[in-house]
Amino acid sequence: MKFSLQQLVQALSSASMTADADIIGLSTDSRKIKTGDVFVALRGDNFDAHDFLPQVAQTGAVAVIAERLPADFQLPALIVPDTKMALAEVGRLWRKQFVMPVIGVTGSNGKTTVKEMIAAILAAAFGEDYRLSTKGNLNNEIGVPLTVLELRDTHQAAVIEMGMNHPGEIALLASVALPTVVLVNNAQREHQEFMQTVRAVAEENGSAIKALPDNGVAVFPHNDEYSSLWRAYAQEHGLRKIISFGLSPDADVAGTYTTSAFGSEIKLSIAGKISQIHLQAAGEHNVLNALAAAACCHAIGISNEVIVQGLENFHPVSGRLQRKQASCGATVIDDTYNANPDSVRAAIDVLKQLGGDTLLVLGDMGEVGDNGAQFHHEIGEYARASGISELFLLGDQVQQSAAGFGKAAQYFTDIQQLLSALDARVSKDSKVLIKGSRFMKMERVVAHLLNVTEISSQQKTIGTH
């Protein structure tokens, strides 16, 4: 990254400059500033980086972007009304310097998994150092600009994850990432506290399609309830290419599959060409994720052979249906990253396939709005109908899951009591699925069963589910 403040002040909305400076990098963390950086003073619900501006002047930063300055502040500065919007505008300005395929990934569930699948394919096509991918789930109004600012001339392609939990966020992120290919992976019951309906979710994620150039490519499921909506978005401003994916033979990128040892054997069909893939990820939803990744990479001209190579190199993402072994020998399925009703159902389907002594350990699902009681009760009923042996519950709203499951459900508000109950119940032949929303920190249960004393933090990132 290389700009002068003069260039930025001309590009940013309502910005004023105290003095010019040449910058070669950008930081939003006062602890990680490098010489030549401009520091962006962001504000959040529980922090205000403007408080650190006096220290920033001593760190090697050459300038700051801020909404206000402390008295006698000496570094060159851009004063802006909103530093978060300024960060987005800087990211957009940098993105416009590059002509390359950029795949934007949206959807309710599976975004990070599909993004990592695409990244594995891009690495197989171009090499690890010649493709850019969102780190972790840095997929919000801070993470997307920071990802875009990592683009370099050596990159041949990029995949950028875009997440949301409020209306209007995807349109902003797409205006920064400027994707040439957009994937809407699905529309399901996420963030209902803020989005209210699944159609609103479909419209929000579909807004990324509207950001495509006329020669862009829209990728979405062949037979989703909202496929016609996304198709209309793709054609709204002139015909754009559309690639559908799914298990139907009528999809542009189609597949059939059989389950294998905690994975799937996929028969992939693209433009009439058949390929076989061994996918090291369980569940039909991950088969669909793989088909989505294949469709996106086909859209930018990657061969079937390389797509297969990349997908076979893929390994499950941390906290997303990772198979582990408890200290007692039990099979542990770590799906603790997050939870909404549809992702929990998909995880239960995986547990059901394992058969035998199946235990579900579930924490509260967040952001469910007025439907919380209904959604939690539904999950209890679904687990019972799926033949799950026993249900262990932690939280408040999961009381409704206990009611839906019946007598073989155990409900706890204290995690130590839950862990003691699991110690008494889990055996070497048990298969234990652990899932819950991020705030429940269900990875603590995984760590206990594995007898791990230090939990590696998978979620220190700033993305949204």
From TrEMBL:
**Positions of the Mur ligase C-terminal domain:** 319-438
Q: Where is the Mur ligase N-terminal catalytic domain?
A: 24-68
- What does the entry list as the binding residues for ATP? 107-113
Tell me, what is an example of a GO biological process annotation in this record?
cell division
Q: Which InterPro entries match?
A: Mur-like_cat_sf (IPR036565), Mur_ligase_C (IPR004101), Mur_ligase_C_dom_sf (IPR036615), Mur_ligase_cen (IPR013221), Mur_ligase_N (IPR000713), MurCDEF_CellWall_CoF430Synth (IPR051046), MurE/MurF_N (IPR035911), UDP-N-AcMur_synth (IPR005863)
Q: Which UniProt keywords apply?
A: ATP-binding, Cell cycle, Cell division, Cell shape, Cell wall biogenesis/degradation, Cytoplasm, Ligase, Nucleotide-binding, Peptidoglycan synthesis
What is a single cellular component term in the Gene Ontology annotation?
cytoplasm
The record's catalysed reaction(s) read: D-alanyl-D-alanine + UDP-N-acetyl-alpha-D-muramoyl-L-alanyl-gamma-D-glutamyl-meso-2,6-diaminopimelate + ATP = UDP-N-acetyl-alpha-D-muramoyl-L-alanyl-gamma-D-glutamyl-meso-2,6-diaminopimeloyl-D-alanyl-D-alanine + ADP + phosphate + H(+)
Does the entry feature the keyword Iron, yes or no? no
Does the UniProt entry include the keyword tRNA processing? no
- Domain Mur ligase central positions: 105-296
Pathway assigned in UniProt: Cell wall biogenesis; peptidoglycan biosynthesis
Subcellular compartments: Cytoplasm
Molecular function GO labels: ATP binding; UDP-N-acetylmuramoyl-tripeptide-D-alanyl-D-alanine ligase activity
Q: What is its EC number?
A: 6.3.2.10
EC main class here is ligase
Main localization category:
cytoplasm
Concerning its family, UniProt says: Belongs to the MurCDEF family. MurF subfamily.
Question: Which PANTHER family does the record cross-reference, listed alphabetically?
Answer: UDP-N-ACETYLMURAMOYL-TRIPEPTIDE--D-ALANYL-D-ALANINE LIGASE
Its annotated function is as follows:
Involved in cell wall formation. Catalyzes the final step in the synthesis of UDP-N-acetylmuramoyl-pentapeptide, the precursor of murein.
Q: Quote the protein name from its UniProt record.
A: UDP-N-acetylmuramoyl-tripeptide--D-alanyl-D-alanine ligase
- Tell me the organism's taxonomic lineage: Bacteria, Pseudomonadati, Pseudomonadota, Betaproteobacteria, Burkholderiales
Which gene underlies this protein? murF
